[in-house]
Amino acid sequence: MDFSRLPGYLLSLFCFGYIGFISSCSNVDDTLFQKMEADYTQVHFKNTLTSSDSINILDFEYMFNGGGVGIGDINNDGLQDIYFTGNQVSGALYLNQGDFKFKDITKTANVETTGWTNGVSISDINQDGLMDIYISKGGPRNTSDAEMANLAFINQGDNTFKEMANSMGIADTGYSIQGLFFDYDQDGDEDLYVLTNALVSFNRNVSRPKQVDGQAASTDRLYRNNGDGTFSDVSQEAGITIEGFGLGAKICDINRDGLLDIYVSNDFMTNDILYINNGFPKSKPGEKQGAEGTVTFTDRISEYVRHQSFNGMGSNIADINNDGLEDIVVLDMMPQDNQRLKQTVGYFSYNKHHRDTDLGYVPQYIRNTLQLNNGNGSFSEIGQLSGIHSTDWSWSPLLADFDNDGTKDIFITNGYRRDVTNLDFIVYGQQASTFGTEEGIRRDRLSKLTVLPEVKLSNYIYRNNGDLTFTDTSKKWGITEPSYSNGAAYADLDNDGDLDLIVNNIDDEAFLLKNNLIDKNNIDEEMGSKSDSTHYLRVRLQGLSNPIGTEVFVHSNNYSQSDLFSPVSGYLSTMDNVLHFGLGNDTIIDSLSVVWPTGRRQLLKNLDTDRILDLEYKDAVNTTSKNLSAIDSIGVPTSPTLFTDITPKIKIDYTHEEDNFIDFTESPTLIHMNSKLGPGLTVGDINADGFEDVYIGGTKAKPGQFFVQDKNGTFTSKKLLQNTPQEDMGTLFLDVDADADLDLILINGGENPETKKEKYIDRIYRNDGYGNFTESTLLEREDSGSCVVAADYDKDGDLDLFIGGRYMPESYPLSPKSYLLRNDNGNFTNVTQTVFHNDAKLGMVTDALWTDFNNDSWIDLIVVGEYMAPKFFQNDQGVLRDISAETGLKNSSGWWNSIAAGDFDKDGDIDYVFGNWGLNSTYKASPEEPISIYAKDFDNNGSIDPLISCYREGEEQLIYARDVLADQISAMKSRFKTYEDYAKAPLKEMFLKEELENAYTLKAETLESSYVENLGNGKFKMSSLPLQAQFAPVFGMKVDDFNTDGNLDVLLTGNFYSTEALIGQYDAFIGLCLIGDGKGGFSPMSASESGLQIDGDAKGLVELQSASGAPILLAGQNSGPIMAYTYTANDTLEETVKIIPVASDIAYAIIHEKNKKTYRHEFAYGNGYLSQSSRKLRLHPEKTECIDLFSYTGQTKRIQLNNAK
Predict the structure, then answer these.
(1) CA Rg, the chain, in Å?
(2) Which of 164-173, 409-418, 756-765, 1022-1031 has the lowest mean pLDDT?
(3) Is residue 1118 located within the same domain as residue 1153?
(4) Does the pLDDT value for residue 225 go beyond 70?
(5) 402 and 439 share a domain?
(6) InterPro entries, alphabetically (predicted)?
(7) How far apart are CA 110 and CA 112, in angstroms?
(8) In which domain, by residue range, is 204 found?
(9) Residue 132 has pLDDT above 60, yes or no
(10) Does 25 fall in a domain?
């Protein structure tokens, strides 16, 4: 132990108590945390619950929701004291006497409670410098108002308290969960928000309109401090009127305007609420701001997040990635192990899910969520990528730096006394309700409850890896004892510089978990850190009676951190009121800035670490702005963004629409739809006026449209006259018949009942030279198509077509046929068998690219798809030979969506970027533990049954709930008569050997979107793109030098909304620009730097040139609007961009730079998912000497850049 780092008074206590202390801990040499024995600490609090005929989980559904923990220094002696709330036992107050010894002063302090107490808030309510205790109460049905009334224990300064809630006007008699004190109206005193739940007689999960009029029993309450020791209920006039079965709440400043907001996590189908503080109404000219009117709040949750947890439990808000922005964690009940998952999580109806969203609910899914703040008014939910999404029946998330490494870790409590979500129990209850008397049924169900399994689990603690991911270190850090844990708090109970944990348990004594980080350096090597990497700074806010909302920014050599003081966090609990910053190896704070809630601020520099720093409000100075983004902090960049939204300016007003066909009705075991995969986009000048136009792919519900550009750079819509509307997939402009105008090819895809007996018809629309098109049939197919790409593969002077087959209707995932069509003087001949030497059943193709990957001047083909390894076809003088096995890419099968090309490392050959499903998914894939799909007509009913498996805890398991599998294969319900039987059976025991042996089987071994480097000689190397590129499935991709630094960058769009209702939509992408370094490396731009917010179900992505010469990026979104962006050159570079148009037969260019380096650029017909961009080259004349253009047939042309137009 490093004795020099202990405060003096603790050193003396340590010397006398060391032997006793060691005996109070178990496994002292092994773990970060040790449970302190109650006989040593004298903390014997136990939240004991006893069921009876009158109080039980059937009649009182909140019986096992537990109690909270309150931390506060009630006697100002520098030691944090503890208050526990109890349900059927009195709450208890323990005075910290140092050295982890406590004294129960509950009776003498007059803080005993009766009735059912929930949350505890410790705050200086009356602003006398002493910490008071506010208790929120609830209780079973028919509990009297007197027993439901909340309590306010006001500190008398002598270790006693006086209960004064009624006289103060805050003895709320609703089903109160938690009180939060904060100064919402900035008048200098503490107001009160009461998180409220309710016992109701209706099913809380039945679809119904939201109740937003303030009349629901479960509407929260806001009490304004009148400044005279009393409070008034101002909920209605302040806009606190939305119902919600709240379990967690947090005071925050989400929009960084200096006004305190409220985040509420709600259970059941009621959405979480984000009450944004609007401040006082805007004053008229000449009036004093805020002189009249009331501060109001508006729920803006749907503007900030795209989905949330279904059963919102405890919640917390903090900066988890040190970017200066507040992130949000909400817990749910998703089990981690396969058996509990299948015994507790049943069928989720897609129809009900969409019925709820039609009623105005934000989509909700059963799992923990981590909402990453993008800094632009939006969040990306990355809980599955981060690895924290499934921690079973969870209650309290605590975000704090438990290992002092400079990043916030996550501690999660969980457990439940009886597993009332057990599906067999639920089914039994439904069946029993139809027989016998009401009282007999009730007693029978009560008896069944006694044999229900208990959900007694160990809590979780996740170490922050510093890269948006977390590692479960529960066992390693000593969090292993099973418990029914609810409320929890952290505090430095012994003032040694690390955070200890205090946990309130049902039917077990509370946990006091001592953190031995600093005084047990012998464990540091196991923790992956050195003995000098435990430095810290603790910040205490002094001189302002209500410092909630104060934000502190700490900058040291290796870290920039921020924290907003808001001690009520997690579930039913109040944290230590000292802000804690771990600093790792840093021993000096370069600068510390603080912004108080009044707007006053101060800056300190060159501070020593390993101490408590007292910040005095009187030392702060006034500032004219309370807007945190305007101060010197970690903050959001205020410089102009690289991309600018120009959607309204260019007048492309188009929203893609789909019909109401639902694939899951026909095949319940699908995990995503195949009918909603567009739109595609294609670019070209259709009317020969010199301006580029665009076609946007349509659907049967809404046909596609041209948008024709005029000389002002705006667009006018023009309908495509079609014989029959169809579902467009691939779209492509090219001159089919060599008449010097652009014709249009549309590939038919999607799935719809009307097409079951019809063939898919791909079409050619021939241009008359003026933008008028005549339809003819290109190809009739049995299967749904995907992409279309063109090149002169046989060097005969015209453009041939490759058409990808996407899937076989009602036979997913069997491979459809893909096609190669040779252009014979404007007519096309199917030469698939001749060129491929097979029927081209390549798999479920999503994208393809003609590219000369071996630089032999013969254009090759790369094909990617779902459950496919990328396929490389080398063009051997007009014959395509599959050399995939020779490329060096092993274990590369994935759920690939798209491919884009560029010479990213400037070595003269073309490299590639492949868009995959990403890592933000419950499904994980590796060569050792792949995702597999087994397809066969298992029940002999004439249709293919697709069954998907993944690995859980090292064993292959079907991913489905029992009801979903039974909907697909009805015999499974009789094979597994109970949910328990089904849950216990791994895949190998679900089917007979002969049932699986002839199944069509595919595997996915990687889900990471990747960069594929061309090593030459037909060899390639695959590496993962940055983690930000793994947030969601990648579809749209565009390669260009967006920041004009001379290196190729790549712009990505994606998401996937048409997914089954349990796992839900993939929506974390808002558009990502990866900045290339010219060596094959990429750095992600933040949203606040890029300016991108393409947050829908993005698919096609193209670039075209405006009439002014500026670039336009168009992003298509399934069932959403087209979005348009432009980008500008880095204004620090004294150069302009030259735009080089190329002829229709040009295949590629070699660019010669003035530094004598050369690189390659290809002009593909079709690049990126369902996309065709402008065939123009953007170059920097100050860096470029000349370019050589090469046609498909080998003709060359040199252009000196100074002569380029």
Answers:
(1) 32
(2) 756-765
(3) yes
(4) yes
(5) no
(6) Crtac1, FG-GAP, Integrin_alpha_N, UnbV_ASPIC
(7) 6
(8) 34-284+292-419+454-517
(9) yes
(10) no
